[in-house]
Amino acid sequence: MDQRSAPLTRAQIAEFIPSQRGILTFEALQSDTSSVFSALSDGQFLTLAADPSLGSERVLSLAPGELTGTDGGANAAYTLGLASVGTAGTTGANSKTIAVTTDAKGRVTAVTAYDLNTSNITEGSNLYYTDARARAAISAGAGISYNSTTGVITNTGGGGSYSYTVTSRALSYTETATSGDQVVLVTGAAVTVTLPTAVGNGARFTFKLTVAGTMTLSASGGQTIDGSGTASTSTQYTAITIVSDNANWFIV
């Protein structure tokens, strides 16, 4: 409802102001006051609380959990900010994967880090390698016996028996065997095998790269492999077999 009063006429002003100049001055003041009142009453102001002297103000309302406001006081700033939803900090590492939880407006509410291991990552159609699975995939034939628990294969045909040991390695390691036929299935994408000393070593080693990656053999103590300190392959399913001449290693 418009509560403004009609301005006084000149005759009405003359009833309490006798001079012509005074009447004109009051008329001008009355006009200015009416304009100011109209601006306050009709202007669309953003306020923090309703005011009966304003007719078209909009009251600022901060939704809990959405926005926060800080009032700096008279002649200062009123600052708006996003409400705090999540927890500040760093989550995860290069050995982990993370799951991010958001609310309906896309804001992060939680971050959970999970270790990158077989307990947290589903196998899918490509099964993880295990010694038990590899050994279970091998079966014995005529003249051969096979122990699926230890991985040892034995030739039971004529001419005596023959056996070798099968192991698997997914990480770099130092080989320690000194005798027998040793078959090592390399299952990691980047594996370095540090060889034992060639001096007095009667073992025959066969290293086979079973995955896409690089397999590197590294001689120790200044010894060599075919004249070089290392031998490597990046071709999947390639095998390197080495023997010792009691001083260095040679690929056969």
Computed over alpha carbons, the radius of gyration is 44 Å
Neighbour order of strands in the largest sheet: 7-8-9-11-13-16-17
- Low-confidence stretches at least 5 residues in length (pLDDT < 50)? none
What percent of residues are in strands?
25-35%
SS summary, helix count: 3
Q: Could you say which structural class the secondary elements and strand pairing correspond to?
A: alpha/beta
**Helix-strand string:** HHEEEEEEHEEEEEEEEEEE
What is the residue-averaged pLDDT? 84
Describe this structure in words.
- This protein has 252 residues and is an alpha/beta fold.
- It has 3 domains: 1-61, no CATH class; 62-121, no CATH class; 131-251, no CATH class.
- It is 13% helix and 32% strand.
- The chain has helices at residues 10-14, 20-42, 131-136; strands at residues 46-47, 58-59, 67-71, 78-82, 96-102, 108-115, 144-147, 152-155, 163-169, 173-174, 181-186, 190-194, 204-209, 214-218, 230-233, 239-244, 249-251.
- The protein has a 7-stranded mixed beta sheet, with no helix packed on it.
- The longest helix has 23 residues, at 20-42.
- It is rod-shaped.
